[in-house]
Structures are given as structure tokens and as C-alpha cells.
Amino acid sequence: MPHPLADSRPILITEIEGFGGAERSLLALSHWLHRQGLAHYLLTYVDHCNIAQYATHPVTVLELKPRRGAINKIASLREHYSERGSSPWQLLASGYQPALHATLAGLRGFHCLMHDTASLLGGHRSLKSRLRFGVSNLIIGHGLRSGGNTIVTSEFLRLECRRDFGVDAEIARMGGLACEGSPRIRPLNRELRMLSVCRIENNKRLDWILRSLAELEKAPVALSARVDWRLDLVGKGQLIPSLKEMAATLGMASRVHFHGFLSDDALDALYEQAHLFLMPAIQGYGIPAIEALQRGIPVLLHRESGVSDILMETPWATVLDGGESNMLAAMASAIDKVIEGRHHSVAQPQLPTEYGWAERVAGLCNWKG
User: Fold this and answer.
1) How far is CA 104 from CA 14, 70, 122, 133, in A?
2) Is the distance from CB of 32 to CB of 64 less than 8 angstroms?
3) 309 CB contacts (<8 Å, ≥6 apart)?
4) What does the pLDDT look like over 175-225, one tens digit per residue?
């Protein structure tokens, strides 16, 4: 008797730790497949966050629930595929570890959404860690070159995949959540509202933002003398206490507001009040920048955020390159553009959409039917 999921398209995310950008992109793909009537399921070892609660459509999640340890996890994946039997649909691995485990489980011809490569994952500065990632890259490269497509969101990640895995990846640019209507013009009146939405972690460089704002307060004409300002930080993370302490030490505690995790409605309310979105982290893509622009909010972002590929030639974006020493000038430029309203006189760049991204990914996976 055929396995009940043999005719479903499998999407592997090894462990669902929390609801971040990668998880959201998978739900966007799942939603597109659902609308097309194409059977699929999320395959995972453990779903720690109940990912289905974040979906607006029915989602099938299969938890393998293996015993602890990589060997047991990979064995459970191999067993599932043995039980699943013959199927016309190849697996889509979502990320670095799923690609590694799929290869070690003996799967071949699978596709991969490579959200981040080893250089973006952090924590591999020691010789031991570099060697570990080097071996993992060799294994993953073997799996990625076995017949499926590797799919990335940016030129930066495409170059990384060529270097790390020896594959030429396909680019599918991700969009943000669809916003109804045209972007709203946000003239600056009494207060400049700045917003950042991310996990509160070291690699997001929120400390760069705080120190740059503190330097702007020390300028011959302080920023607060030019315009009243406020910074809203949305997201959970272990750095919140230390960043609150930093804001207090820099004399900005009354201007910097930490909101933690917010509901969609509460987050929308902050977006509606914002004049500038801040995203200085290096990351594979950067969906929040797209969502801010869709709402009519200009952005400051790093050149090594993949989404900067399409934002280099517009006053709607201030693109920071290099290290923290360049952050102050970028922050000052972004704020000046908002105060002067320079971006309002120029049409927004054409932005990708979630729907278009999901359709392209499904096509690259040969999943359309």
C-alpha cells in the first residue's frame, strides 16, 4: 500500500526552533502550493514553535521525533524515506543543516533553499570550527551537485554557494508580505520615528545603531536639536538587557524603546508611524527591508544584505558598506534624506513579491504538476 505522503512534495527543515525569516518563507511557499491545490508537507525532527499557528491556511507538519544525536536524527530521515517509497517529487531542503542531513541520509537529486552559507552562520572562527564547516561544505556540495537545484535570494549567496559548494545556484528574489494599496507618503512632522525588526542578537548590529545615534547627539548641532526622535526595536533575544543598559549609559534610554515580540496588528501600528527602517546586519537577504519599502518607509541596510542588490541606485535606500566605522556617516545620510524628504520625489524601485518568489521556487523544484 502506498505511503500516504508519497504523492506530496516534502519540505525539510530539520528543527523548527522559532519563527524567523526562513520559517516565514516556507509558509509563503506552502501557501502558494495550497492555493494551487498541490499536496505538500513540512518534514522536521521537532517543531518547537508549532509553526502551523503562524499560517493562514492548513499546513501538514510531520515530526519524526528521533532520539537525541545527529546519528539518530539522520537515521530517522533515512527511515522516513524508505517508508515513503517511490515518489515523483524530490525533497526541498530548507537551509544548510537540512542539506547536510539529506546528503548524509543518502538522498540524491534533492533541491535546496540555501538561506545562509557557513560565512553567515557565525561561530566558526576557531581552527576546529573552520575545519568542521569545511568538511560539512564538502559533504553538502556532493548532495547539491547530485541533480537538484540550489536556490538563493541574492548575488552574494550565489557567489558563496559557488565558492563553498561548487554549485551555480538559481536566484529567486523573495518579497515581503503583500501590503494593500500604494505605499503611504510619510512626511516628517514633529518626531522622527526609526524602527528595526529582528531577533535581538549580536549579528544584527543594534549596538552600531545606538552608538551612531549617540554620536549624532554629540554633533555641533545635536540630532535632537534638529528633530525630536525615537527608536523602536522589535524582537526577542538575549541582548535586550545589555542593549537597554547601553542606551541608558549613552543617555538615550527615554528615546529607545524595546517592544519584544509583537502581534501583527501591534507591529503594523509601529510600521505606520515609522519614517526610517534600520537593518545594518549582514544577512543572506533581508525581507524586512522589502516590507518597509512596500509600506513607503525608506531603509538603511548593509551592502552584504542580499536585498541590497536591487536597492543600490535609489534614494529610498541608504546602503552601508564595510564595518562600524562607516555606520555614522550612513546613519547621518539616511536621516538627512528623511528630514529633507528626498525619497518622496522618486518612484520606488520595483520590488519582488512573496507570490512571485514561491511560484519561481516551485518551478525550479519541478513541483507545478
Assistant:
1) 13, 10, 22, 15
2) no
3) 154, 155, 156, 173
4) 876 555 556 777 788 899 999 998 898 889 999 999 999 999 999 999 999
Regarding whether 197 and 161 lie in a shared domain, the answer is no
Taking residues 63-79, report their average pLDDT: 96
Calpha distance 290→308 (Å, rounded): 10
Rounded to whole angstroms, the Cα distance separating 135 from 44 reads 24
Domain hosting residue 266, numbered range: 191-345
* pLDDT (0 to 100) of residue 2: 67
DSSP state string for 48-115 = SS-GGGG-SS---EEE--PPSSHHHHHHHHHHHHHHH---S---EEESHHHHHHHHHTT--S-EEE--
pLDDT exceeds 60 at position 131: yes
DSSP 305: B
Question: Residue 221 domain-assigned?
Answer: yes
For 186, the enclosing helix (H) or strand (E) is none
Cα–Cα distance for residue pair 278/162, rounded to 1 Å = 30
Task: Write the CATH number for 209.
Answer: 3.40.50.2000
- For the segment 257-293, what is each residue's pLDDT rounded down to a tens digit? 999 999 889 999 999 999 999 999 987 778 888 889 8
Query: Are 160 and 196 found together in one domain?
Result: no
Q: What residues contact 362, with CB distance under 8 A and at least 6 apart?
A: 29, 32, 33, 36, 38, 368
Residue 3 located in a structural domain: no
Q: What's the confidence (pLDDT) of residue 186?
A: 76
**Hey, what amino acid is at 57?**
H
Q: What is the pTM of this model?
A: 0.75
